[in-house]
Amino acid sequence: MNLGPAVTGPGPSHRGEYPPGSPEAGQRQGIKGQYVVLGEGVSIGEGTSIWNLVYIGSRVTIGSGVTIASLVHIASDVTIGDGTMIEGSTFIASNSRIGRDCFIGPGVVTTDDPFPPVRRTTGIAAWPGVTIEDGAIVCAGARIKAGVVIGRRAVVGMGAVVIEDVPPETVVAGVPARSVYSRQVYDQRQMEAAIEWRLQRSSDTTFEQKPVRL
Ligand SMILES: CC(C)(COP(=O)(O)OP(=O)(O)OC[C@H]1O[C@@H](n2cnc3c(N)ncnc32)[C@H](O)[C@@H]1OP(=O)(O)O)[C@@H](O)C(=O)NCCC(=O)NCCS
């Protein structure tokens, strides 16, 4: 597979082909997948996992215990806090700040240019990305406007378009996103869903009864 200059251009790059424990693998800590492209000055904390076909731009700082799923694009000058999970096909805009223990669902789009392509005249560094504070959850396919702050432990529902700051501990959904209930209610529903799922699994014997066909 020829990926052209993207993996062979300036700055370190990695094809995920170093054996675990080799000096090269040590320098590329956390890279579990193949075809991961790193810009210059990327820092990756201990226990972090980065999967296939991920692009990480220059000066990105990734904390410890972070998971970055396949096909994620992280632009330059981003920080990601410890324990955060970023699901597949998500775009993290330049100059974004993501806190600790956040969950960013699949197909989320954050933005850094309010009137594209204004960055052509001002330069990328002039524009803020988004800020996602500690413990926040951004569900599948949400879109977040440049400069918006998603507050601590806030939740953004799937498919939302977020055009203004979200207060801490608040769940928002819809287009444009509006408050639907509190994080306390969300946590309660999450716990109830988990209990219901476990009950269903414990009473479901179909897995044991079905013969395995190869
Ligand atoms: C935010 C979320 C948790 C709310 O789920 P819920 O508690 O079951 O919500 P309800 O169905 O009780 O809806 C509550 C209200 O919010 C609205 N609402 C809920 N989710 C919505 C959404 N994603 N977009 C728009 N409105 C939504 C409902 O219409 C309802 O409005 P009403 O009170 O005026 O009738 C859910 O929509 C969601 O985004 N789940 C995450 C899925 C996901 O991305 N997982 C990632 C891994 S794949």
Keywords:
214 residues, alpha/beta, UDP N-Acetylglucosamine Acyltransferase, domain 1, eight-stranded mixed beta sheet, six-stranded parallel beta sheet, 4 helices, disordered N terminus, binds coenzyme A
Terminal Cα span: 31 Å
Sheet with most strands: strand arrangement:
4-7-10-13-16-19-21-22
CATH class group: Mainly Beta
Number of domains: 1
The general outline is: globular
What does the main sheet amount to?
8 strands, mixed
> What order do the SSEs take from the amino end to the carboxyl end, as H and E?
EHEEEEEEEEEEEEEHEEEEEEEEHH
Query: Which ranges are low-confidence, i.e. pLDDT below 50, for 5 or more consecutive residues?
Result: 1-21
Number of strands: 22
| Ligand names | coenzyme A
Helix content: 10-25%
What's the CATH architecture? Answer: 3 Solenoid
Instruction: Output the radius of gyration.
Output: 19 Å
Q: What structural class do you assign from the helix and strand content?
A: alpha/beta
What do the pLDDT scores average to? 86
CATH superfamily: Hexapeptide repeat proteins
Total of DSSP H or I helical runs spanning 4+ residues: 4
As for the CATH topology, it is: UDP N-Acetylglucosamine Acyltransferase, domain 1
Beta-strand content bin: 15-25%
Walkthrough of the structure:
- Strands 4-7-10-13-16-19-21-22 form an 8-stranded mixed sheet. Strands 3-6-9-12-15-18 form a 6-stranded parallel sheet, with no helix packed on it.
- With about 210 residues, the protein is of the alpha/beta class.
- The chain contains 4 helices and 22 strands.
- It has a single domain, classed as Hexapeptide repeat proteins (UDP N-Acetylglucosamine Acyltransferase, domain 1, 3 Solenoid).
- The two termini are about 30 Å apart.
- A hairpin with a 4-residue loop joins β21 (about 170-175) and β22 (about 180).
- Residues about 1-20 have low confidence and may be disordered.
- The structure holds coenzyme A (COA).
- Coenzyme A binds near residues 106, 140, 157, 171 and 180.
